[in-house]
Design a protein that fits this description.
This protein is mainly α. It is 77% helix and 0% strand. It has nine helices and no strands. The mean pLDDT is 85.
Amino acid sequence: RLLVSATQSAPCGKTFYRLAQFYTKANRSEDAIRAFEEAKVREPRNVQNLRALGDAYRVAKRNEEAKRIYEIITELESGVYGKVRAMPEMIEAEFGYAHLGLADVATEERAYEEALGQYQAAGVVFGEAWDHRDWEAYRGVSPLKRADWQAKYQYLLERSEEHTSELQSQFRI
């Protein structure tokens, strides 16, 4: 109730994002999606919220909507938003997560070539973060988030290898 009240008192993206996180943990995916969508209205370029929204759509098995959200993130990555950073050495990992989401959707659709391209794009993002992981700028990143980056990087490397093998057998490369 307090989080719902907070969205009425301070109707900004962050309060709706926090409410959506609560709904996610309570396995109330449709409520979470509505709250993430409301946060998106208020902060349309908040990649953390967009990623969470895409992931919520995936949990709800609404892959087309998830794909649309992940594509918004990758469009932000290729535009000014993704190129100009206050701290150029800080990598926006959410771009990598969006590529992973697109790759996983493509895998489910058996579009292995597209999936492989998205895994490779995610590899660029996570690889850059990995290369800079010991820089001073990353000391403020929580250990849980750093561990998640590492796990996702390992995941995408394994999936890339699987899809390369799948494509080789499919096209007899």
